[in-house]
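User: Please predict structures.

Assistant: First:
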Amino acid sequence: MYIDLKRAATFGVAGNFTGHLEQAGEASDFTQVKTKEANAPKALFPTFIPLPQDFVGQTPKFLSVFPFDEYRIIFPKGEEKLQIEPELAITFDVQYQDGKVVSLKPEGFCASNDCSIRKQGAKKISEKKNWGASSKGVGSNLIKIDKFETGGILDRYRIASFLVRDGVPHVYGEDSAVKDYSYFYQKLIDWLIEKLNFQKNEGPAEEINTYLNEANLPRKILVSVGATRYTEYGEHNFLQDGDKSVVVIYPGDLYTFEEIFHRVSRDNLEEDDISVLIQEVVL
């Protein structure tokens, strides 16, 4: 499978794993955000919007800078605290009617590092996500989704992440089942459609429907559906020059976490049924 990310709009989901926002020090950003359920995600945020050349409109210009790099993360100048955000990313085919999203068809999934700057004072989530080229990444092995419901392929998959420092791998995020996202399957699709159409420009959130229309209603979108909770190591260790970020989406019925860890140690993760993203941090 393949998606041309330079022509797709890309997004992330904030707060889809219980406890992640608290660990990331971002829970206070959402104190005024009201949700229908206590465990509901807090917001959908943009990471890249494919705007036309010479664009003039409401979409912030920095969102038109392509941020994805499969091999490296360029450390943002003047910043100190940069963390891996290990996630599952899903590609969708989008249908519109009168400028609104009417359907999302899941097509494929892969590993995602929705890398984030931990800094105070950012008004919007996107300001901590897209700081320019090579600020995030997704795995190139896009695995086809057979059906997006309980009993489908994603029931089998897990998310693991590691920081390799001086050649030594450290477990960065909790090894987590994909199906343990707070919102997933049809519930996630319904939530995404609502946010793509009606999310308002309030607090850390943005009015995404305007952005989609200004981008001429892109037919493909990619959504990183939420970062896992960190291990104690991941919560307290930020990225440094020369580190390697590793995010692995793997079928838990075929591989154990211990096997994945050893494969990271040996740099031997390439398999058709695994999506892996390995990025080196450079200044």
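Second:
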Amino acid sequence: MRQEQEAEFHGLLDLFCPMHALLGPEGEVIHMGATFAKLVGGEAALGQGFLDLFEVLRPQGCETIADLRAEAGQKLSLRLREGSRATFKGILAPFGEGAAINLSFGISIMDGVRDFGLSGSDFAATDLAIEMLYLIEAKSVALGASRKLNQRLQGAKIAAEEQAFTDTLTGLKNRRAVDHVLSRLIERGGPYAVMQIDLDYFKAVNDSHGHPAGDHVLQQVARILVEETRSGDCVARVGGDEFVLILDGVRGRDELARIAGRLISRIEEPVPWRGAQLCISASVGIAIGEAGSRDGGAVLFDRVDKALYAAKHAGRAQFCFAD
């Protein structure tokens, strides 16, 4: 009968205090709750001294079981001697010739849950730690949802900004992007060049073959401009058949002349379209940005416009510098 009562008593302790341990006269562990067993490595801890398993941080000076018994009823701060560095709160009470001690994690519950792989079932149903775990889990879920929402909003913002700076037909930058890039280069200073390209005979293509053919030509010209420039250059369509290149770091007239010559040569190649050959050419105006110049984008485009029309008046399919 006594064994049955003892087993029933242990069962009650295990239910109400799963982080408890019963200690014998020498401070050895003679019984422990299921969660306590997880902390100390399981049944192998039975028979070991409690102070061999745990270090008492506060109050200081608890080196023996007698010292610990002298602190009965007082709040203890403890830490495992091996493994996790999570701290525990505890309270000890005399029990027969030995003692009973019950532990909790206090504010370090997350460390305990992480280090020992605990779940809600490892705590008494009335333990406030359960409520804290729910709050922490809810906060974690809310923060995760907030992060995902922020990522979606940031992605939408980037997409909207990209769309605002992009020509939908060719995928190149648009006039708004050109103004943004140019103002940044003017403010920064340093060498750069602007090319304005106008297609010759493009209206004849539209009139003879229709706007789908004209769109096809514009897309082919856009591909050529991208292939003949560097990834860091700004390539834009700023009007119906007008394109702008902003070449950062390019200052030499010889290099610019080579670039313009290649562009004119490639754009003059006939473009196949539904059995026909669409023929156009390109006139190019070039202006070199002056380092330290206070002239704005409007002044620069006025210069490059004049160079472009000089190229057209010289016979088309040519380039001219703004001098």
